[in-house]
Amino acid sequence: MTRLGWSILALIVLAAAGFASLLSFGRAPVVAPAPVASEPAAAATDGGRLLVPVAGIARDHLTDSWGQDRGGGARAHHAIDIMAPVGTPVRAAAAGRIEKLFDSRDGGLTIYQRSADGGTVYYYAHLSGYRRGLAEGQAVRAGEPIAAVGATGNADPGAPHLHFSIKRMQPGERWWQGQEVNPYPLLAGSRGLR
User: Fold this and answer.
1) What sequence ranges are listed for the domain M23ase beta-sheet core (predicted)?
2) CATH number of the domain located at residue range(s) 30-188 in this protein
């Protein structure tokens, strides 16, 4: 083989190695959010109100984005987006159990958490990572850190946020089913979860 042939082969091998280093297999990355002072569970869900699931965000800084057009008007937004820097701790909005850890094209890294009574599913999307050790089936307390804000899935990389939605569940419904509920009034405190 000529010197040119060896040079071309070396470039091909380097390009392949560089591409291979971009691939990852297995579970999504785990991020340990910074410690967060948790509100007591009783205060977090007083009167059916939920805890704001992004650390450091006050109720009066939330914006109701329920029903806004998305995808150029192709669909309505059935959630609330809570803007925060990448890595900001995401905490459980209420007590319950981690039902599903999932990586999807649209939601990116996601968590589905079922309420303690089984009648509600809380959905956390566009996460940058899960809390170290978080697992499906694990019980969580209101205010407990579970993940970190990100911009995964179809989120704009320049606008990291938590996409948070709620579904009321009928007996036997799975984590992806249920009736969508506007989370804004429940987080802002204007009405309780019924």
Assistant:
1) 76-183
2) 2.70.70.10
pLDDT score, position 64: 85
Residue 161's nearest CA partner among 45, 57, 60 is 57
What b/e sequence results for 133-170 when a residue is b if at least 16 CB atoms lie within 10 Å of its CB, and e otherwise?
ebeeebebbbbbbbbbbbbbbebeeeebbbbbbbbebe
Rounded Cα gap, residues 148 and 65, in angstroms: 21
How far is the CA of 142 from the CAs of 4, 17, 46, in angstroms? 64, 45, 11
pLDDT confidence bin for 107, thresholds 50/70/90: very high
The encoded tokens of residue 84 equal 């925060």
Q: Which residue has the higher pLDDT, 84 or 46?
A: 84
Tell me the domain boundaries of the chain: 30-188
